Amino acid sequence: MYLYLCFDVEDLVHPDSDDIPADIATMLADDGVVASMYVVGEKARLWERRGRWDVITAVAQHDVGLHTDHHSVHPTASEYLADKGWDDGVAEALAQEGPGAADLARLFGQFPSSWATSGSSWAPQIPAATRQMGIPANVYAHVRTGDGGACWYAGQLCYGEYFGIRGGENTYCDDAAFEAALPDLLARVEAAQRSGLACLGLFCAHPTRLRYTTFWDVLNFFRGENTPEAEYKSAPRRSDEEYATALRNLRRMIAAVRALPGVEIISTRELNSRFAGEGGPVAWQSLSGLAEAVLSSEGIAAPYPVEGAGGSVSAAAALDLLTRAVVRLAQGGAPPTALLSRSILGPSELAPELPKSFEMGRRAFVGYCQELAQQIGASSQLPAWLLVDKLPIGPGPLLKACAATFLAWKSSHDGVLVEIAPAPGEPDVAAELAQRGIYDKLPGWPPHRPDLRLDLLAKHTRLQSWSLAPASLRA
Ligand SMILES: [Zn+2]
What we know:
- By secondary structure, the chain is of the alpha/beta class.
- The protein has helices spanning 19-30, 41-49, 53-59, 77-81, 87-108, 125-132, 168-172, 175-194, 216-220, 240-258, 268-274, 287-295, 315-331, 362-379, 395-408, 430-439, 455-463; strands spanning 2-9, 36-39, 63-66, 115-116, 137-139, 150-153, 156-159, 162-164, 199-205, 264-265, 280-283, 304-305, 312-313, 338-341, 358-361, 386-388, 391-393, 417-420, 469-470.
- Helix 1 (19-30) runs parallel beside helix 3 (53-59) and helix 5 (87-108) packs across helix 6 (125-132).
């Protein structure tokens, strides 16, 4: 099992918190360990302004990811995306997070390996936007599927499985508490490994919390408040002795986890490269199995099993494949050995419900499939609907109709009728994804403003469940 060591470097309030990631980075580099330092863009700019090149140089020995551009300073990620649709939301996320990625690349000499959620401030546009800006993964993602520890969502590689020592940073500062908690942590890592997880994040620390007993943002950015710099409140500070104890125990914990058989410590950057890209060739022969899976239930699965493409495809990729397969059949001749499964986003709107079934000739349906394949190919996104006989037909009914047409191809002819029937507008997991990823998580983060709007975030989380599929390691 690959295990990546997570550090959230984020304190924008206490200048002397700058030393802590440098101490950790130097200590771990001495041990030959490469950790993942998720640094807030503004934190890196503060180091630059304060001339802390010693800190930047120390941290640059490790993998660097972007822990958002400005963390808890309002508006946070969920807050700036709360009233957005899809395209304007992706554009906003690019505008908000892009400067952080550029600054980390400039200061550390490495483009961020990942975007790591701050607190629970997440939105479904983030994975799409970070992929667009060239960041290859999201850490602490709010979505998951499969049991490998990583999935594809909105075109991005998302890592969702992580945990840390019981009691967090307070535990490191107290030898007795640490002795008591370490065996439990090691047992949980071993259990995760036995369960077959491919990768796991070990949450190591918010470095600032090895010095400060309270979070910098709870004091200054609580529930929507933006305290001006001149009025920053400082947190109670731990003694030098407690700090030294914390560093020592952190080092011991990492050494103990590293010694577990079958656990390989890896940077997030290296882990990204161990995963195969999304999609890949899907054997033509397995497309009937895919079509049967689509028709085997009334709902829409996410993902669907296939031969090739890592063993499964998202519901969006399934629609793309079956649409192109129908078009290919209509062209005649020998079919190809495989079709390439592509990374396809979910739609940006929910289609109106189809009130009742209707039928059309197969030749006409193939024409609509050509149009759909072109639209998907041009945008890498499912359209919200396709106008069929002036009726808006969503991806759900289209997926079912394509699957049925593909399976019936051999025994039918152009005069045969294709039925377009009402079907769900989103995959079966959509509601649960929004519940867990938005409603259960966002309101509980102390900095989030109490009136944070959740409905649009939930809506787009649901719609992007079309793009959800497990990620698989390279063969
Ligand atoms: Zn954070």
